[in-house]
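INFO batch 0412 | record 1 of 1 | parsing
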Amino acid sequence: MRKQQTSIIAFAAWVTVVSAILILARWIDLEVFFILCLIGFLVIVQIIQPGYIQPGYLRYIKYLIAAGIILFGIIVIKRVLDIIAR
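INFO prediction complete | emitting tokens
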């Protein structure tokens, strides 16, 4: 199997495990789910990234990572403002 196929399977397994843990804990929060999925995605991208060359698909993945980090920042700012408002 190629790295791309293995990474898709690994990410699907990660999302399934995160979903199962959140459901079993009865703590379904989309923000927490998004953050945990983003962490898993970043780890998998770091593992599949080649050392000296950059494939074309990796450029588009970096745009996706940038969008995820921006959303993460929005979530953090929202949580901080909620804490300050109390």
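INFO post-check: The first helix runs from residue 3 to 24.
INFO record closed
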